[in-house]
Amino acid sequence: MQRWTLDIDSPDWKSAPEADAVCTALLAGDLVAIPTETVYGLAADATDGKACARIFQAKGRPQFNPLISHVPSLESAMDHGEFDDRALKLARAFWPGPLTLVVPKKKGSPISDLATAGLETVALRVPKGPVMRFLAEKTGRPLAAPSANTSGRISPTRAEDVIADLEPSLSYVIDAGPCTVGIESTIVGLIDDQPRLLRPGGLTREDIEQVLGTELATRDTSTQPDAPTAPGMLTSHYAPNARLILEAAEASPEDGLLSFGPTSLPGAEAARAEFNLSPTGDLAEAAANLFQALRWLDAHGAAVIRAQIIPNFGLGEAINDRLRRAAAPRP
Ligand code: TXA
Ligand code: MG
């Protein structure tokens, strides 16, 4: 595996020799870890079935759980999906950004059936993170990319997280520093009359509903699986090694503590280790810190992590979704 470290704020990286080498690797069907504003993605050419198969194999991911295809622009998304007025409105308002749209797959789209898990719909995203967009543009291929972690584990927000988890499967990891949003994209399904929030994420429900002018139907992710076609699949996901207790009322000396806001839980000073997601109670800061916090508390050897209540509006909805799934019983 090779590591390409780049400075996202200087445009020089676009002409670096590594840019050509990474494109060659992607076009040969190799796996490359690519940063986005949400999390690091485990990317491959979405039109190459064998390359997509490598993604499932590397993650240990069930093949009925489809992948998001990343494209450089709305125009190129329209080569792969059918965009009605609602889809166009959302794409124009929020792309590039942390929003994935599930729309009917366009006839003739070369995205492989493995990437869509054989569904007649396709998940498309134009990320804000410029590296993914640049590589999709330069290769001329949609890039399939789930989060670059072993299935069920904590999603990566730094190159080191990816390397620790998936190094043997990668030809390249592109290191552009920590992800700014820190939590995966929001997924909206536009496949029937009712727009649906399939997964809360880095774009808030409130912002989406305002642009749509209508409410999003919700899937109860505490009882329904991540994968649309897999009833009964366990919801456990984003799991630290420690057991997670939600909405804790007090800290305990043996346990790790995941706090939020200016007021710590009673007994916090005696906790084994405490990570405050945002001492000022800022939900965007909390989202950006969430996965690192779980890793950090794990590294402190707590067998149990107690999490303080986090408000359930704005980005809090996505944070609570990840925490609930991290706390779900393991398979
Ligand atoms: O922020 C993100 O979304 C990151 C970065 C890398 O873009 N990607 C990501 O991918 O989180 P992944 O594979 O971890 O999550 C993709 C989700 C899965 O829950 C999958 O079931 C859903 O998208 N999905 C993909 N295609 C779908 C479809 N056709 N219908 C419904 N859900 C779909
Ligand atoms: Mg994931």
Task: Supply database-style keywords.
eleven-stranded mixed β-sheet, binds magnesium ion, 15 strands, about 325 residues, 2 domains, binds threonylcarbamoyladenylate, alpha/beta, DHBP synthase, four-stranded parallel β-sheet, Rossmann fold
Protein described:
By secondary structure, the protein is an alpha/beta fold. The chain folds into two domains: about 1-220, DHBP synthase; about 245-325, Rossmann fold, CATH 3.40.50.11030. It is about 25% helix and about 20% strand. The chain is built from nine helices and 15 strands. The strands form two sheets. An eleven-stranded mixed sheet has the order 1-8-2-3-7-4-6-5-9-10-11, with helices on both faces. The longest helix is centred in the last third of the chain and has 17 residues, at about 285-300. The protein starts with a strand and ends with a helix. It binds threonylcarbamoyladenylate (TXA) and magnesium ion. Threonylcarbamoyladenylate (TXA) binds next to strand 5, strand 6 and strand 10.
